[in-house]
Description:
With 111 residues, the protein is α+β, with helices and mostly antiparallel strands. The chain is 28% helix and 37% strand. Strands 1-2-3-4-5 form a five-stranded mixed beta sheet, covered by helices on one side.
Amino acid sequence: xxxxxxxxxxxxxxxxQYGKLRPSHGDIRLDPIFDEMHDRYALxxxxxxxxxxxxxxxxxxTLQNGKVYIEYDxxxxxxxxxxxxxxxxxxxxxxxxxxxxxLAASTAWHQ
Length: 111
């Protein structure tokens, strides 16, 4: 199977698993959003907690040039290890939420 196809399936599986979780409080729904045409994948949260509206993304990942770009990771322990455990090669993970000045330093952790 082609790497981008494999990574696409892994990303979807990880997001689906997080989408099954239920927040510890509030009436919040977690919605996996997949745009395979543009290789954009997200986990959105929407609902109410203590009389306040909750909405926004928890995870946002894009696939570009054979790599997995973590654009946003709002999961407490992070999703990087989940992606690696499912088969994404560490050098193919880009922590896109870091500024470029920190991005070079962050790649040292996988060399």
